[in-house]
């Protein structure tokens, strides 16, 4: 069973983030411990947002005065049900609902969300210390403290695309995408471990690896462990993909392929899969991919199907086996792919 990773904390505002009601006072201040919690969560790479009932203009003004606005992505401040706001936040951040935690002082609101979205954890403000401690035990890397900024840059990309009026393909053509695949280096180990533990939707088998296991596989002549990174004219996405391939014989077995949810719209899964296919072809090997077919990894299933993989009647370790096509695909014209030894 995969370990539940908290990826986003969603705050109620009145009597939770700050004391009192913003609409009733211009001097609402943060509740004790809130600023420290917000900064600790941010440093750990946990995203944060708002789902709160109230007047959006007044609430955003208060967040600005209190120095909180920049920490909170895609705040949902309205008079609607909070479960709807949480769904919108998850969609905006491209996260699974089970990676969200709602902090709310109102037991009725927590109960309503728990009933409508049982996969979302809900806590009262007095449980905040335990939440921060739990997050502190999650895997983290030097990249984690930059996660919010990466999402903010992605939002700038999306806004620029919307304003451009270009078709999706025309927009992709002028992004200057550079996709680099390399064998895992020692400095990649912690980030690769974090990806393996945090990534559930874009993960072909759901396997997680410790840094020690990845180090061992990296040094094993019968395995190929690849890391992928992506950048464009807006900036660097960082290390966003991991592949583990068993290369024991003339049949290579892709035992794990995963990519960060931040780059799903860039086709990173297909780009990494294509690189693995081309490496296998260059080695004269036939490629097979293992997969656990669940609704949760539907996007990875689609990527494999689009790449021409066909389902075999074989099963391996309880995993579905897919056979790669004989001819590997060429990279799309709008991406420069660098395949390093």
Summarize the biggest pleated sheet: 8 strands, mixed
Q: Portion of residues in helices?
A: 25-40%
Number of strands: 13
Give the ordered list of helices and strands. Answer: EHEHEHEHEHHHEHHEEEHEHEEE
Lay out the secondary structure.
Layout: E1 8-11, H1 34-43, E2 47-53, H2 56-65, E3 76-78, H3 82-93, E4 100-103, H4 107-116, E5 121-123, H5 128-136, H6 147-164, H7 168-173, E6 177-183, H8 189-198, H9 211-218, E7 223-232, E8 235-246, E9 251-259, H10 268-282, E10 286-291, H11 298-306, E11 310-316, E12 319-323, E13 335-339
Parallel strand pairs: 1-2, 1-4, 2-3, 4-5, 6-13, 9-10
Antiparallel strand pairs: 6-7, 7-8, 8-9, 10-12, 11-12
Describe this structure as you would to a colleague.
This protein is an alpha/beta fold. It has 2 domains: 8-136, 3-Layer(aba) Sandwich (Rossmann fold); 166-339, Gcn5-related N-acetyltransferase (GNAT) (Aminopeptidase), CATH 3.40.630.30. The chain contains 11 helices and 13 strands. An 8-stranded mixed β-sheet has the order 11-12-10-9-8-7-6-13, with helices on both faces. Helix 8 (189-198) crosses helix 9.
Which descriptors would you attach to this protein?
341 residues; alpha/beta; Rossmann fold; Aminopeptidase; 8-stranded mixed sheet; 5-stranded parallel sheet; 11 helices; 34% helix
Q: Could you give a short description of this structure?
A:
With 341 residues, the chain is of the alpha/beta class. It has helices at 34-43, 56-65, 82-93, 107-116, 128-136, 147-164, 168-173, 189-198, 211-218, 268-282, 298-306, and strands at 8-11, 47-53, 76-78, 100-103, 121-123, 177-183, 223-232, 235-246, 251-259, 286-291, 310-316, 319-323, 335-339. It has two domains: 8-136, HAD superfamily/HAD-like (Rossmann fold, 3-Layer(aba) Sandwich); 166-339, Aminopeptidase, CATH 3.40.630.30.
């Amino acid at each position: 069973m995969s370990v539940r990773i908290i990826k986003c904390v969603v705050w109620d505002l009145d009597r939770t983030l700050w004391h009192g009601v913003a609409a009733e006072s211009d001097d609402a201040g943060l509740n004790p411990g809130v600023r420290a919690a917000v900064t600790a969560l941010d440093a750990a790479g946990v995203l944060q947002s708002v789902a709160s009932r109230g007047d959006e203009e007044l609430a955003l003004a208060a967040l600005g005065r209190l120095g909180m606005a920049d920490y909170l992505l895609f705040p949902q401040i309205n008079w609607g049900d909070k479960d709807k706001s949480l769904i919108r936040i998850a969609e905006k951040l491209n996260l699974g609902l089970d990676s969200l935690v709602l902090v709310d002082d109102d037991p009725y609101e927590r109960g309503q969300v728990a009933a409508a979205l049982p996969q979302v954890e809900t806590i009262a403000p007095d449980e905040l210390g335990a939440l921060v401690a739990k997050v502190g035990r999650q895997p983290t890397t030097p990249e984690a403290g930059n996660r919010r900024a990466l999402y903010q840059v992605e939002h700038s990309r999306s806004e620029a695309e919307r304003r451009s009026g270009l078709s999706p393909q025309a927009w992709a053509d002028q992004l200057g995408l550079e996709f680099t695949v390399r064998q895992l280096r020692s400095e990649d180990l912690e980030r690769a471990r974090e990806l393996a533990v945090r990534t559930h939707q874009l993960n072909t088998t759901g396997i997680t690896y410790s840094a020690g296991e990845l180090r061992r596989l990296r040094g094993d002549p019968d395995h190929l462990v690849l890391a992928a990174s992506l950048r464009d004219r807006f900036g660097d996405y960082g290390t966003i993909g991991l592949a583990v391939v068993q290369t024991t014989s003339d049949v290579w077995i892709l035992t794990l392929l995963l990519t960060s949810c931040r780059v799903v719209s860039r086709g990173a899964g297909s780009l990494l899969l294509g690189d693995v296919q081309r490496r296998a072809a260059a080695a004269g090997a036939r490629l097979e991919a293992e997969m656990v077919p669940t609704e949760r990894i539907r996007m990875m299933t689609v990527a494999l199907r689009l790449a021409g993989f066909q389902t075999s009647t074989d099963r391996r370790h309880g995993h579905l086996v897919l056979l790669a096509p004989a001819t590997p695909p060429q990279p799309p014209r709008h991406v420069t792919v660098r395949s390093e030894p």
